[in-house]
User: What shape does this take?
Amino acid sequence: MIVLSIILGKDDLAKYPFLEEAGTYIRESHFDLDDFNRSEFLHIIERAIKRIEFALIQGKVFNDLEKYDIELFTFLVSLIIMKYIDEDWAIKRFSLFEARRVEKFLIADLLKEKDQIKKNLIISRIFRELFQLDVESDPKKTNLFKMNISDYLQRATQFNEEEWKLINRAVDNGYVYLDGDETVRLIRSEIYKLMYNKIKNMNITKIPEQIKTHAILIKNKLTPPIKYHRHITEFPPCIKKALELLNKSENLPHSARFMLATYMLSSGKSVDEVVLLFQNAPDFNEKITRYQVEHLAGKKGSQTKYSVPACSKLVNENLCYATIDCRGITNPIQFGRKK
Amino acid sequence: MKKEINSKNKDFLVRLFKEYYFKNIGILSHPNQMHNREFGFMTFDGKVIRHLSFSKIGSLKAFIIQNVPSDIFCSNAYYQFPTFPITEKCWKGADLIFDIDLNDILLPCQKEHTYYICSNCSFVSKDVLTSCQECHNTKILKNTIPCFRCINSLKKETKNLLEFLKKDFGIQRQNLEVSFSGNTGFHVVVFQNNYLLLDSKSRSDIVGYLMGKNLSPESLGVSKDKSGYKVKVPLSGFSYGWRKRIVEKMKIPEGSKDNLNRFIKKIGGYQSLKNEMDKISYEVGLKLDPQVTTDIHRIFRMVGSLNGKSGLTKIVCYDLDKFDPLNDSCFFENDRNVDISINTPLKFNIKGKTYDLDKDTSTVPISVAVFLISKRLANLATCSS
Assistant: This one.
């Protein structure tokens, strides 16, 4: 019997299979990659395929949580398949959905875990050791967490929303106070990068046949994102930049998505065309995107058609990439019209 | 803005600045990790020389005495290669810095002692000039001689900054250096490692916090909804930072959702609350120069160096209450006199003495001459040397 970490329980490893202990467990079990060719591992491979399909085809987080050994192997097989697929857009999208899955478990652990010692261990292993972020739970309110102002700023400035500005936070004596959701939200991009790098840096000389057969099937099912090349040079630089990022399947902030959608709608594009544009976003979900685009187009909710944000607003949101051609314009929609 | 001065004034200032550095070179601060800093100078011809490096304080002092710059600067940043162009310097961090200047504190008295000076013919006006009334030159300098009220306001603002840094940011006084800029402001430098690596955006967030910018009702848990607004008190409550300041100013008992609700109802809803918060945050927020704090490649005036805009020394203030800038930072003696011609009637106080000068030639102590010539409000009289 292999002794798992005396610190974290097996259930925790099931939720956080990227931790060092998970790797140690697999190594110490003398497991060989060829073992995946055995029939008893078929259900693990099928589960990994399902997990990947959730992210890449359905745009959903895979919420199932099984026993730790099933989870550890499913995670490993998922990574092997993603490495085999070897499409950057797909790896990015999968990493984002895996990050969301971890986020969900972390929030639940921070909010619902009654055992303070265990809660502190999770904080220590994930926040401190993995992401070098010192987080402490407040002794008076255990669902409240605090972190150093500079640690907070280094992460929060990636968000453009006002709520993340330091002034809108509870700040005291060098610390920022956050609830569990907010604390976890801050490290979302770090979890994403961890997943992405794990796949990218994997070195597998020979992929087991049973995995390969399934990997080929899912690879054939995938639709690569549409490259939005049409007249890309005619767009103002802010829009061009957003499109370039989308083409690379980068995760655009909310403010950039708003800018892009309102710009395209104001330029006469249909809701369908705009929805299609966001197909490359790593977290694309057609239903949600359509609802949001229809809302911006004034076809849902308050029936208000939203305008393209002014250049000054885009400057504040760090979305402006003005060039000499932008001279004299106050809104991206005027680009190319006003001279 | 600094423009070239006439050669007679320049020779006079160069001679006295050289004398100052010769006698007082020990006052010049010794920056930590000196070999990682970029140094810069301004010449009396208005040229800026940057991207210099000195690994020893002795070589910097020798350079200063030999070249006599009008202003001396040292980067707040630490670089692997301080002499390389900005993009190749290899940035290793920067001290967090703040600038409190009269330009950012709008005081009613400033009009009385602010002068607009033509950089070409030295014409002086107390009214805002866009071009010179005499020679039509458009390069206009703006100079202020701070009065007691100005100094007191600057000190008050500096104390408020120290209070914010202590209470909210947990920065203790021993990790801060407060200095008089040598002209119309105070500088504060934070020597605390956890702020060293912050990028420009994070520093912008810090300065926005201190200035009270972008405070939203949502931070109090108040958000818009179909019925107008709704209140959900945040888990972190109202006991910290700006939330505490706002709740106290609005006299809402801490942590009470009902009282907050009542207050919003009374003042007229979400937008009225936002307006009220904007008003309070403007009043309580500090008046700082945000560009100084957000610039992570800034060359900052060195402690112990002369400010070329005033001839006063940038000096560390250990006791703000007792500090008297126009006395404590003036290192020129009153033992020699010199004749100057004044461009406009002036009344001011320096080195503990009040001067009331008219538009003619006056005989004044060296300290006064250096001060007024540096401020471009006087010229060395033709008979003086």
Residues 88-112 of chain A form the longest helix (25 residues).
